[in-house]
Amino acid sequence: MAQVALTGNEPRVEQPTLTRRPSKRWYIAAALITAIVALPVLSVLYLALFPDENIWPHLLETTLPRYLITTLQLMAGVAIITLGIGLATAWAVTMCEFPGRKFFEWAMLLPFAVPAYVIAYVYTSLLDYAGPVQKALREWFGWSSARDYWFPEIRSLEGATLMIGLVLYPYVYLLARAAFLEQSPSLFSVSRSLGHSALSTFFRVVLPIARPAIAVGLSLVLMETLNDFGTVDFFAVQTLTAGLFDTWMNLGNLGGAAQIATTMLAFVVILVTLERYSRRRQEQFAARDNRDPIRRFTMSFPRQMVCVVVCAIPVVLGFVVPALTLGTYALEYFEESWNNEFFRNTINSLFLSGTAALTTLLVGITLAYSRRLHNTRGMQVLMRLSSLGYAMPGAVLAVGVIIPLAGFDNWLDSLMRDYFNVSTGLLLSGTAFAMVFAYTVRFLAVSAGSVESALQKITPSMDMASRSLGHTPGQTLARIHLPMLRGTLLTAALVVFVDCMKELPATLILRPFNFDTLATYVYQFASDEKLAHSALPALIIVLAGIIPIILMSRSIASSRTFT
Amino acid sequence: MRMKLAATAAMALSVMPLAANAEGEVNIYSYRQAYLLEPLLDAFTEETGIKTNVVFAKDGLAERLEREGRNSPADLVMTTDISRINELVERDLVQAVDNDVLEQNIPANLRHPDGKWFALTTRARLIFTSIDRVEEGEITTYEDLADPKWNDRICTRSGKHPYNIALISSMIAHHGEEKTEEWLRGVKDNLARKPQGGDRDQIKAIAEGVCDVAIGNSYYYGNMLADDNQRPAAEAVRLVFPNAGDRGTHINISGAALTKSAPNQQEAIKLLEFLSREKAQQIYAEANTEYPANPAVKPSGIVAEWGEINPDSLSLQEIAENRNAAVKMVDRVDYDN
């Protein structure tokens, strides 16, 4: 894969004549990778061609309109929440000086560590009738049953929107903040000196420049929302994903389910295309002068407090409350949970997520860099194709992964049986390889997207300079781009790592025998209405998510001082 | 270079769990949580020395089995519902087992005629009523649930859940589609809130005063009584065995089937036999308050206190066959909204 290029051990081809056109090998590498990564998605499309029964008349007549509307409502709500929280807080911690700013800089990311299905469970246990909140209210006002008062229903579309928004806004925050940090402060100063207020500068200069990054963040949020099953299932919110599972599990029509998945895919493709189309004529390269540090606003005390509150609310709701609740349960069931199985699951989770993060990063770099070298229509198509896995529900993707892997295994097995009379059995399916493959397919969009948007900000004159000084594209990548992108690369890898730690549906279907990750372990209890019994592993998923978050923040902060 | 090495090492390591398939083992794909199977499988290993390996998932195991084909490592599939296990038969993924022990331990109505699946436990779909707000005997049948007098007083989980689908399928088998649809509309009209949560949540909702009547599986109630935190909610409800006086109460099964490709057939059949015998049946009964499939084993003390059960004699096969009709009916009635 990318290693060939990374090590830069190509023969020093004496081509100082600067062939404008870089060699084809990057293009070929990208095409190969895309072909492999697109296999699961293509398998699902193939399934969609052969449904057991045409499900659309029934769906159109009954539930489909509602599935669609609910899905759109959920996505719109989550977009508003994540953009609101993400942009406001990213701006505050980057540009304003207030007490606790340094703390919030990384603390804003904490909710990212909480899986949506966990936060949904926690809030349900807190806010439902038997939970402490309503109990206190009843005692206070002397109510005796649920019929005596009105209380907002957490298990609703609104509840799901809030839950998902609370744990996904860090995508927007992270990418927006990185973009704000990378912007040259002089742009801001120029705008101010030309008479724009801070607010108007924010909307007219800062946001437009940060838009590619914010768009990546938001599209990640929307795809995750579209694919969320745990929360919507638990809250009985009828989205397309719910309809898909219904068609698959209850009607036993996998082909029909694949058709719905394909429809959802089309949804995402349209979304992403629209966004790209809307900024088709923009091209911006910011050569930031690092000697020019960001000058943060000094503000009056009440304004500083507003910043503190704005930053604190999402952290408290999205992290502190769930973590404390899980912590309380974990203590209560500590002896039951603290055992060898728990350690084994922790190691499994760390190992799988680490491997997947590394693979995904390498593949992502290869793709994004190929795109930079060959900015052709074909390359764009490859890039989009390779990201499709993210737009597919995990369980469906898992079936898409099984089809080519088991197909390959069985093909090889028959071949070996025919010619050598030995059975090789299943080499790839049902192993950790299948899981790493699934994670890579699923989360490649995260790494390739972030690397691509960061690469876009490096002015091509860098490449030209490097190439004219005799470096090959690979050397240029290794010596110029990768060092410059260190912060982004680490961020991308860690985001994927945390995502893999939380991944559930594909993990469940693909895993080998007797193999649990923290997420699957939590799920088997949570799905049996017993999450308290697995609060400890749930807490560990959350805590493990925090470590990369801290590293991530440090690296972003320090990258400012020494790139 | 270092990255390359790390990646290679990672790839090599990632293939390792494959080594888990030695001889003298049974490999299980389970729709049932692994922790619920653990006591049973531990007892089996202790008795026979045969190791067991489990993958648990709620979805997709049938697809995995089908795609893995003749090389699939799975020997047994264990499910919690009749339609899931019937699906395996329909897709030709399981094989017939002709075995005296199993035939002796499991009554004929609780196994496939050719031995393509065997029930290991049964669970009854009960009606729960508020002790405070509903008189004893005020509701006695599933049909009563559609009576307008329960308007705004009933709670259930999603109509699409396999347990409700099986109940609706059995109604279709008894009354036909038209009558059943009418009934289901009636039940929907009586709902106090949008269907949500699991069976335990419906019992809790009665305790909370949200509704007065709920539907749920028997063992959820049993397990709630055994849990200190949930006992108060369970104690607020009375349980009703619906249709005990006529055709009998609707039951569902948890069961197991031998896969077509099973590489460890002998061991797998040993496990099936073990699961049907008294020791394992006892564990099922005690640990999860289900009804043992083996008539020689008595239900646990708690369950016995509820009284004799008169199960509906409708064949499980027929219930499974009505599944699709039931699912579509739930959509037409718009039950979940």
Would you kindly provide a written description of the structure presented here, covering whatever features stand out?
- Chain A: Keywords: Cell membrane, Membrane, Transmembrane, Transmembrane helix, Transport.
- Chain A: Its main location: membrane.
- Chain A: This is Iron ABC transporter permease.
- Chain A: It is a multi-pass membrane protein.
- The complex is a heterodimer of chains A (about 575) and B (about 325).
- With about 575 residues, chain A is mostly helical.
- In chain A, about 75% of the residues lie in helices and about 0% in strands.
- Chain A is built from 25 helices and 2 strands.
- Chain A has helices at about 5, 25-50, 55-60, 65-95, 100-105, 115-125, 130-140, 155-180, 185-195, 200-225, 230-235, 240-250, 255-280, 300-330, 335, 340-375, 375-385, 395-420, 430-455, 460-470, 475-485, 485-500, 505-510, 520-525, 535-560, and strands at about 95, 295-300.
- Chain A is globular, with a radius of gyration of 25 Å.
- The model of chain A is unreliable at about 1-20 (pLDDT under 50).
- Chain B has about 325 residues and is an alpha/beta fold.
- Chain B folds into 2 domains: about 1-120 and about 250-305, D-Maltodextrin-Binding Protein, domain 2 (3-Layer(aba) Sandwich); about 125-250 and about 315-335, 3-Layer(aba) Sandwich (D-Maltodextrin-Binding Protein, domain 2), CATH 3.40.190.
- Helices cover about 45% and strands about 15% of the residues of chain B.
- Chain B has helices at about 1-15, 35-50, 60-70, 80-90, 100-105, 160-175, 175-190, 200-210, 220-225, 230-235, 265-275, 280-290, 300-305, 315-320, 325-335; strands spanning about 25-30, 50-55, 75-80, 95, 120-130, 155, 215, 235-240, 250-260, 290.
- In chain B, strands 1, 2, 3, 4, 5, 6, 7, 8, 9 and 10 form a 10-stranded mixed beta sheet that branches.
- In chain B, β1, α2 (about 35-50) and β2 (about 50-55) form a beta-alpha-beta unit.
- In chain B, α2 packs antiparallel against α12 and α6 (about 160-175) crosses α7 (about 175-190).
- The model of chain B is unreliable at about 1-20 (pLDDT under 50).
- At the A-B interface, α1, α3, α12, α16 and α18 of A face α1, α2, β2, α3 and α8 of B.
